[in-house]
TrEMBL record:
<dbReference type="Pfam" id="PF00849">
    <property type="entry name" value="PseudoU_synth_2"/>
</dbReference>
<comment type="similarity">
    <text>Belongs to the pseudouridine synthase RluA family.</text>
</comment>
<dbReference type="InterPro" id="IPR006224">
    <property type="entry name" value="PsdUridine_synth_RluA-like_CS"/>
</dbReference>
<dbReference type="GO" id="GO:0009982">
    <property type="term" value="F:pseudouridine synthase activity"/>
</dbReference>
<keyword id="KW-0413">Isomerase</keyword>
<dbReference type="InterPro" id="IPR036986">
    <property type="entry name" value="S4_RNA-bd_sf"/>
</dbReference>
<dbReference type="InterPro" id="IPR006225">
    <property type="entry name" value="PsdUridine_synth_RluC/D"/>
</dbReference>
<dbReference type="GO" id="GO:0140098">
    <property type="term" value="F:catalytic activity, acting on RNA"/>
</dbReference>
<feature type="active site">
    <location>
        <position position="150"/>
    </location>
</feature>
<feature type="domain" description="Pseudouridine synthase RsuA/RluA-like">
    <location>
        <begin position="100"/>
        <end position="254"/>
    </location>
</feature>
<protein>
    <recommendedName>
        <fullName>Pseudouridine synthase</fullName>
        <ecNumber>5.4.99.-</ecNumber>
    </recommendedName>
</protein>
<dbReference type="GO" id="GO:0000455">
    <property type="term" value="P:enzyme-directed rRNA pseudouridine synthesis"/>
</dbReference>
<dbReference type="InterPro" id="IPR006145">
    <property type="entry name" value="PsdUridine_synth_RsuA/RluA"/>
</dbReference>
<dbReference type="GO" id="GO:0003723">
    <property type="term" value="F:RNA binding"/>
</dbReference>
<dbReference type="InterPro" id="IPR050188">
    <property type="entry name" value="RluA_PseudoU_synthase"/>
</dbReference>
<dbReference type="InterPro" id="IPR020103">
    <property type="entry name" value="PsdUridine_synth_cat_dom_sf"/>
</dbReference>
<comment type="function">
    <text>Responsible for synthesis of pseudouridine from uracil.</text>
</comment>
Length: 320
């Protein structure tokens, strides 16, 4: 349907939509990304219109839709903050490519796609600058994106080039088919050295940019095993069973062994400074999945970038 800037768009909630999150209902109805809607919710632009003449109720994005209720969205008449800017990222390289997929080695400081408040480079913009013409369904600013990495997390990220690959890969990630393997260096030595963290994650109640283990959070499961132990840290191989935002960072922090350099989740700033780290030591090392078209196994790996490799070498040097 689309939304017209400067106007109020309305939608009456159908019986079949009752109980769904309001942001999901609006995204499906109007073809607008949930990241853009999140910005509008935060600005109080989404309301449930009153039937009795009382004041309309401003909604949070997580509010549940009520059958028969009229949702009103005051569409802002300002520039779309999610416009894709083609911007070359020299540090981004191509790890794998065929007719349907392209896998990039995402550097730090690069987001997966445009989002409210982010003004830096993106994978989508970098691929556009390299001449990729990706026209899959979904929000325009997320062309081909089937999964994401945090801005400060490096490593393997796969992007769909065709609609058939996009649909199949979205299904794979939804059904947790791909094997997602990360390497992380955490402070101290976990006890036990290998194990599973099964703890729900939700938005931090006091800091909206963070996440935390919460009783009413979304189910989140992380498996880890030790690869190497140093004097002040441990190199872990981490397998994600679920894919929540900041999942590894939150779960290692919950173990009281945060990723080295992750000041947001309790890492020691002195150690980070000594190692020259300005972000968390966390790397998407390997991604394995059946090809979305041929079904053949695909495994893509990424080497450690320089800042992580140097920090790792310094920690190993503690033992000398």
């Amino acid at each position: 349907m689309g939304m017209r800037p400067g106007l109020t768009e309305r939608l009456q909630v159908a019986e079949a939509e009752a109980g769904r999150r309001v942001d999901a209902v609006l995204a499906d109805a109007f073809g607008v990304s949930r990241s853009l809607l999140a910005d509008w919710f935060s600005r109080g632009l989404v309301r449930a219109e009153s039937r009795s003449g009382r004041r309309d109720r401003v909604l949070a994005k997580s509010a549940k839709a009520v059958a028969g209720e009229t949702l009103a969205v005051d569409v802002p008449d300002d520039p779309d903050p999610l416009e894709v800017r083609a911007e070359r990222v020299d540090a981004l390289s191509i790890l794998y490519e065929d007719d349907d997929l392209v896998a990039v080695d995402k550097p730090t400081g690069v987001a997966a796609h445009p989002s409210p408040g982010w003004v830096g480079p993106t994978v989508v913009g970098a691929l556009a600058a390299l001449g990729y013409d990706i026209t899959t369904s979904g929000a325009p600013e997320r062309q081909g994106i089937v999964h994401r990495l945090d801005v400060g997390t490096t490593g393997v990220m796969v992007v769909a080039k065709t609609e058939r690959a996009y649909t199949a890969m979205k299904d794979q990630f939804r059904e947790r088919v791909p094997e997602k393997v990360y390497h992380a260096v955490v402070q101290g030595i976990p006890d036990p050295l290998s194990g599973t963290v099964d703890a729900p994650i939700g938005r931090h109640p006091g800091h909206h940019w963070k996440f935390a283990v919460l009783d009413d959070g979304r189910p989140s499961v992380t498996h880890y095993e030790t690869l190497e132990v140093f004097g002040r840290g441990t190199l872990l191989e981490v397998h994600l069973e679920t894919g929540r935002t900041h999942q590894i960072r939150v779960h290692t922090s919950a173990l009281r062994h945060p990723c080295v350099g992750d000041l947001t989740y309790g890492a020691d700033p002195r150690l980070a400074a000594e190692l020259g780290l300005t972000r968390q030591w966390l790397h998407a090392h390997r991604l394995a999945f059946p090809h979305p078209v041929t079904g053949e196994p695909v495994t893509i790996t990424s080497p450690y970038p320089d800042d992580l490799a140097h920090a790792l070498a310094a920690l190993r040097g503690d033992e000398d």
